User: Which sequence fits this backbone?
């Protein structure tokens, strides 16, 4: 790594720590029962939204009504995004004359953006009209992130409330998360990006003549505003096909650093908000530490292997050393302005969350360097995960760790004074098994279907990694593409869409059911036999549970993919 890369990494760690503390405290206040910051500004807007939508903000919901509200809102969102794509050529704000999107691709895209996955089987600048980008995709970037945030807050309420039949009001949580957190932060972030040269206009595509006399097509559009919420909301859907590798979306080293910060900001801050709302800040730091260690480990692997270079290139005499003339390392598939270190850090951060944004081609990584983002997603994106989704995903693992600890000490497992019993553990098992079943099931089916195999660019172990990555990315609502797979076919548009639905809504319903079950319980005082969950020992146990559960689930496919490719290199 260069000195500049070390400085950027240190600055990122400081910014994440500061953001976790102050943004986390703000989030906790936004969703508290008392007055919230800036009530004079946001209060009138919220009340107007409630009046227009017929919502009673004082009326709370049981967990099943909360879940039905999430599903109903998401269904309407899918239908509206699908419809707008199917008729966009006849609607205004379409200066480039984009055609209507085919049915299967419209389904895949609608499901993708509503589930916060943002998997893209299309080229954004040539497929979608400006109206579709702004009124459908950008809107879903906000509200899909707000849905995940609302579910996480509902689960926290379930953990801390006593003998309560309700866990909040989804419509209130959705409104507050959007208006008070995502919109203000995105506005500031968009201004920062515009100041660095990220495009923000409604101009049509321009044709420029290069120095060599060739024609260069320059897309216009509202890139900075979508880039801001794309990263902040851990969405990942790029305005242009090259995503965050395109200079119009990510022009320099500072914007690359800033976008990584935006990706990590809210997921890590939610751990502090959890500690504040649970009145146990040490427990919040335990969750933060587990997420941070997993993220740091994946970043170290990706940066290390990519900075060390590619053995296959070294065999043919390529010089991959760091010199004054070149950045060094494995530069294939990476932008020179970011280098292997900046690309590896971005890859680890975007797959540790549910962002899915990419600034390099993961398909060109070394076998183990490319395994780091794949394993990150397989962890269920809890390092630190998506907006809201990372926290409720890690809390599911916390419940499992508490249950195992309870068995170890021979007592009923407890978390924040709530007994963890059979009902909660059944829901935990459903949450843990649903995604792997979708990933491994569809991957197995795809490698047996000749038409699906025909979509792979590479045969053998690397091709298996490409296939596995696609379904892992979809089912875990990440959306990043490894590369080497032609996903815009009826088979992949449909199966990837189903994987996204399973990975999003089965886990949400399970998390809300856990919240409802715990909210009804009366906390019991801690005793000598209670296993403490706010210590470094529990942090180690939690990390072990995450790694072992995921390892046992996915090790066979990893052994047949990136591991055998590395050993056979």
Assistant:
């Amino acid at each position: 790594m260069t000195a500049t890369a070390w400085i950027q990494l240190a600055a990122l760690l400081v910014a994440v720590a500061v953001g976790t503390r102050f943004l986390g405290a703000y989030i906790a206040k936004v969703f508290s029962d008392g007055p919230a910051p800036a009530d004079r500004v946001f209060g009138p807007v919220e009340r107007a939204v409630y009046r227009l939508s017929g919502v009673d903000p004082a009326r709370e919901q049981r967990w099943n009504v909360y879940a039905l509200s999430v599903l109903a809102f998401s269904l309407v969102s899918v239908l509206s995004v699908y419809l707008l794509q199917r008729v966009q050529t006849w609607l205004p704000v379409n200066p480039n004359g984009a055609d209507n999107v085919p049915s299967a691709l419209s389904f895949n895209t609608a499901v993708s953006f509503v589930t916060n996955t943002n998997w893209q089987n299309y080229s954004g600048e040539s497929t979608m009209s400006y109206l579709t980008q702004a009124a459908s995709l950008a809107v879903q970037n906000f509200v899909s992130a707000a849905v995940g945030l609302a579910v996480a807050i509902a689960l926290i309420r379930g953990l801390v409330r006593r003998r309560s039949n309700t866990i909040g009001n989804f419509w209130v949580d959705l409104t507050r998360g959007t208006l008070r957190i995502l919109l203000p932060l995105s506005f500031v972030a968009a201004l920062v990006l515009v100041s660095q040269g990220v495009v923000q206009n409604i101009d049509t595509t321009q044709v420029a003549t290069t120095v060599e006399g060739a024609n260069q097509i320059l897309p216009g559009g509202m890139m900075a505003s979508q880039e801001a919420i794309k990263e902040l909301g851990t969405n990942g859907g790029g305005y242009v096909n090259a995503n965050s590798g395109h200079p119009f979306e990510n022009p320099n080293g500072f914007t690359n650093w800033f976008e990584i910060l935006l990706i990590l900001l809210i997921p890590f801050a939610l751990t502090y908000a959890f500690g504040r709302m649970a009145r146990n800040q040490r427990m919040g730091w335990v969750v933060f530490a587990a997420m941070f260690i997993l993220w740091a480990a994946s970043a170290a692997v990706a940066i290390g292997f990519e900075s060390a270079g590619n053995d296959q290139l070294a065999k043919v005499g390529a010089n991959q050393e760091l010199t004054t003339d070149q950045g060094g390392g494995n530069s294939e598939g990476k932008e020179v302005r970011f280098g292997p270190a900046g690309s590896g850090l971005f890859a680890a951060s975007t797959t540790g969350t549910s962002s899915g944004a990419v600034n390099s081609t993961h398909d060109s990584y070394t076998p183990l360097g490319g395994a780091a983002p794949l394993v990150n997603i397989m962890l269920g994106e809890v390092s630190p995960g998506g907006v809201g989704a990372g926290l409720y995903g890690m809390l599911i693992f916390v419940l499992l760790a508490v249950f195992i600890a309870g068995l170890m000490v021979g007592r009923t497992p407890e978390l924040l004074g709530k007994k963890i019993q059979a009902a909660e553990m059944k829901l935990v098992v459903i949450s843990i098994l649903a995604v792997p079943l979708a990933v491994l099931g569809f991957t197995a089916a795809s490698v047996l279907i000749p038409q699906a195999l025909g979509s792979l660019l590479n045969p053998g172990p690397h091709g298996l990694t490409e296939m596995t990555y696609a379904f892992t990315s979809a089912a875990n609502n990440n959306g990043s593409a490894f590369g080497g797979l032609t996903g815009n076919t009826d088979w992949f548009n449909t199966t990837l869409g189903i994987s996204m639905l399973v990975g999003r809504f089965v886990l949400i319903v399970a998390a809300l059911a856990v919240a409802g079950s715990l909210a009804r319980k009366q906390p019991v005082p801690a005793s000598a036999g209670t296993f403490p969950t706010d210590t470094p020992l529990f942090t180690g146990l939690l990390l072990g549970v995450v790694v072992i559960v995921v390892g046992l689930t996915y090790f066979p496919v990893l052994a047949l993919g990136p591991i055998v490719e590395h050993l056979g290199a």
Summary: The chain is about 65% helix and 0% strand. The beta strands are 206-209, 215-218, 414-415, 418-419. The chain has one domain: 3-567. The chain has a mean pLDDT of 91.
